[in-house]
Design goal:
Blueprint lengths: L5 H6 L3 H11 L9 E2 L6 E12 L11 H6 L5 E6 L10 H9 L4 E4 L2 E2 L2 H6 L4 E3 L1 E2 L8 E6 L3 E3 L2 E3 L4 E5 L2 E5 L4 H23 L4 H4 L2 H11 L1
Length: 221
């Protein structure tokens, strides 16, 4: 077993490689549609989950997500926000400033964000489905946190691992992280060798033959 911190190992990879490892292991985790909402850096961390839902009444309530941000005390967290509604903001610059102050690494939203320039101005990464100007106030409410959520069709639990970059967002179940990292690192090394082989003049047809990828799969078994 590799004794290096899993977050350090995960940070050395990209979403493509982690997605491939999940594929080989038959695990879900890769999402479609959750992209960086500004030209933000990669984020890697542990999930702090939030469940949102449409608000059913006009009674005043604590603003969504603020209780979750307030109670975070470690610097390894990524907010994973489920239950967003098309065209309605689930995130904004005031929350981004509060999250930045608490050392939160970024937000992944199965929904939309407003005030995206505010997040960009402080270097706070936000991944999601898109940008809007429409406020969540009286439209969305937080109904749970620290719970199991569904994000872009993927089940995510509190403390699962998150990696998000320019290609999208991938979640890794906490109980599978060692197996996924071991395989992803092998894939990364093999694919680097394949690139070098092509650059050296070897036929791309042979380099990318299915048998080459089957060899990776065999290593995982």
């Amino acid at each position: 077993m590799n004794a290096t911190n899993p977050l350090t190992r995960l940070s050395a990879l990209d979403t493509n490689t982690v997605s491939d490892a999940l594929d080989f292991l038959g695990l879900p985790g890769a999402t479609v549609g959750l992209r960086p909402l500004w030209n933000c850096p990669k984020i890697v961390g542990r999930a702090s989950t939030v469940q949102l839902a449409p608000k059913q009444d006009a009674a005043p309530t604590v603003h969504l997500i603020t209780p979750v941000v307030a109670r975070i005390e470690t610097d390894d967290r990524v907010l994973v926000i489920a239950g967003g509604v098309e065209g309605i903001s689930s995130w904004g610059d005031i929350l981004a400033n509060a999250a930045r102050r608490k050392g939160i690494r970024g937000s992944v939203i199965d929904g939309f964000s407003r005030d995206i320039k505010g997040s960009e101005a402080i270097g706070y990464p936000v991944f999601g489905r898109g940008v809007t100007m429409i406020s969540a106030r009286n439209r969305l409410v937080q109904v749970d946190a620290g719970c199991t959520v569904t994000v872009a069709g993927v089940t995510v639990k509190e403390d699962d691992y998150v990696i998000a970059d320019e290609c999208g967002t991938v979640f890794v179940p906490a109980e599978a992280i060692e197996d996924v990292l071991d395989l992803a690192e092998r894939i990364d090394r093999r694919q680097a060798g394949m690139v070098e082989a092509v650059r050296a003049g070897r036929s791309v047809e042979s380099v990318m033959h299915d048998s080459q990828f089957e060899a990776i799969k065999a290593e995982a078994q």
